[in-house]
Amino acid sequence: MPCRHLVIVLGDQLDLDASAFDGLDPAQDWLWMAEAAEESTHVPSSKQRIALFLSGMRHFAQAVRARQWPIDYTRLDEADNTGTLAGELRRAIARLKPAGLVMTAPGDWRVLQALRSVAAEHQLALDIRDDRHFFSTVREFADHAKGRKQLRLEYWYRPLRQKHGILMAGDGPAGGQWNFDADNREAFGKEGPVGLPAPRRFAPDAITREVLDLVNSRFADHPGRLDSFGWPVTREQALQALDDFIAHRLPLFGRYEDALWAGEPWLYHSLLSSALNLKLLTAREVVGAAEDAWRAGHAPIEAVEGFIRQILGWREYVRGIYWTQMPTYLERNALDARAPLPEFFWTGETDMACLRDALTQTLTHGYAHHIQRLMVTGLYLLLLGVRPQEAHAWYLSVYVDAVEWVELPNTLGMSQYGDGGLMASKPYIASGKYIQRMGNFCKGCRYDPGEATGPKACPYTTLYWDFLMRHETMLAGNPRMGMQVRNLARLTTDKREAIRTQARQLAAKEGS
Ligand SMILES: Cc1cc2nc3c(=O)[nH]c(=O)nc-3n(C[C@H](O)[C@H](O)[C@H](O)COP(=O)(O)OP(=O)(O)OC[C@H]3O[C@@H](n4cnc5c(N)ncnc54)[C@H](O)[C@@H]3O)c2cc1C
Ligand code: SF4
Q1: How far does the centroid of ligand 1 lie from the alpha carbon of residue 374, in Å?
Q2: Mean pLDDT value across residues 364-390
Q3: The sheet that has 100-104: what strands, in order across it?
Q4: Kind and range of the H or E element at 115?
Q5: Measured in Å, how far apart are the chain's first and last C-alpha atoms?
Q6: Cystine design at 383: which of 105, 324, 405, 463 (Cβ 3.0–4.6 Å)?
Q7: Whose CA is nearest to atom 3 of ligand 2?
Q8: Is residue 78 helix, strand or coil?
Q9: Distance between CA 2 and CA 25 in Å, rounded?
Q10: Whose CA is nearest to atom 36 of ligand 1?
């Protein structure tokens, strides 16, 4: 059959209603999908992440075939697979000789460049269409960002709510406030989370089991393990996961959004990021389901606003930052951080109880909730002074929801302050006392969060004071850091020196 358009579908574009399919004519257009090893090796992807993408792609191809749309699909284990998206696209062009290429805008700058250059080599038009999975376009964000030195979520989020009529009461915000953060973010009481609802997980079917075997043999030395794999890999499963969250966890989402608890990886989080990022769910339907739950009286406004802020707010905002700042964003290192990533980030073998729990759970499930990523793993790397590019490679490797457009601004901008404040108004720094306040880790730890020096000193606390001293001049100019910097004045010269020495010892132990 002659091919008019080859419609490119990437592993994070698993939506049968995507713009790439507008005007599709199955009598003359082909869909193209390829499993390319490079997508799992350009950073050493965790087994969970590889399995999720491959299983999601294979299930999507099955749904495409059920619609009787022609599809050209290369599997990872085919003998002549070149291992790269560009190589596979070249081969497909040679086979099918399309007159043009069509796709929905990809989520990754590197992939966009690779596909563009293949199209140019073959003098084929590449029609890149807006991704209507999102509420906003990158053009809208670029207009918003024009002339602003700093970008702040709040100024982006409120107009989006107004424009799309989300959680509005007439012209004002529902509940009389735009932001309910002050009512959210509690820690659990001494007894911890009582009656936590277990989230819906999905037993691997035959397609997923085949993928798990493939990943275990082909990527045996990649981080993590697969015995707990239970992520949604089809649209039907993703919808069930959404229903499960709305029914059982949304009402307490806001209250415990920032809480930590040992051995409890899921708490009241939605676990929807991978389904959203693979486009098994649209941002609109997730936000709509949460708003409906509030209107039906099932969940309070604080929880629903807090949740919607993450998706309509943060998620759209980081996408805008990524696409307006790339490719130079990738290289930014405003704090001139040079230490390497500690080796134990790949194994979880550390005696710091909070970090061990976050890392072990990450390697087991490919998941950690936001405050673990920001204030446990991310905080440690920031305080230690690890190169933001190494932190970025780690976060992009390990999480099932990791796609560069969302991972990079969160890591380099929000967590590591590598963009010097473009995205976050201050570095997110804290001592071990913050972790103590938000959870129960410190009780079971050999360190003491109140100590900055000595054998029981909590490494977070030592490194927190050392960070403040290292960056004192820069931080003193930031009005939001005033109190933290002023506290430095309470340290005697001897104490400062002792902290510096202990911080140097820690850095030497981590290989810096
Ligand atoms: C260092 C670092 C790296 C991160 N890397 C990723 C990543 O690779 N992919 C990713 O999707 N998120 C990333 N995040 C954001 C956030 O941590 C995850 O989206 C969230 O933990 C996913 O779990 P959940 O679905 O249970 O989220 P919930 O807590 O239930 O939140 C609901 C949804 O809101 C969205 N969301 C929440 N926070 C953010 C945020 N800061 N930016 C963008 N969307 C957000 C997600 O789609 C999430 O599913 C990162 C955060 C940090 C600090
Ligand atoms: S004492 Fe420090 S290292 Fe130990 S759990 Fe508390 S914050 Fe983490």
Answers
A1: 10
A2: 98
A3: 71-74, 30-34, 5-8, 100-104, 125-129
A4: helix 109-121
A5: 59
A6: 463
A7: 352
A8: coil
A9: 12
A10: 310
431-483 pLDDT, tens digit each: 999 999 999 999 989 999 999 999 999 999 999 999 999 999 999 999 899 88
Please list the alpha-helical segments (H only) found in 67-107: 85-96
Instruction: Return the SS3 of 74.
Output: strand
Q: How much distance in Å is there from the Cα of 442 to the middle of ligand 2?
A: 5
Please provide the DSSP assignment of 264-292 as one string: -S-TT----HHHHHTTSS-HHHHHHHHHH
Measured in Å, residue 369 CA sits from the centre of ligand 1 at 7
Among all bound ligands, the one having the nearest atom to the CA of 133 is 1
pLDDT the model gives residue 212 = 98
Q: Which residues sit with their C-beta closer than 6 Å to ligand 1?
A: 269-273, 276-277, 307, 310-311, 314-315, 318, 369-370, 373-374, 378, 395, 399, 401-402, 406-407, 410-411, 414-415
pTM of structure: 0.97
- CA dist 290 and 456 (Å) reads 45
What is the CA(486)–ligand 1 centre distance, in A? 32
Per-residue pLDDT reduced to its tens digit, 84-131: 999 999 999 999 999 999 999 999 999 999 999 999 999 999 999 999
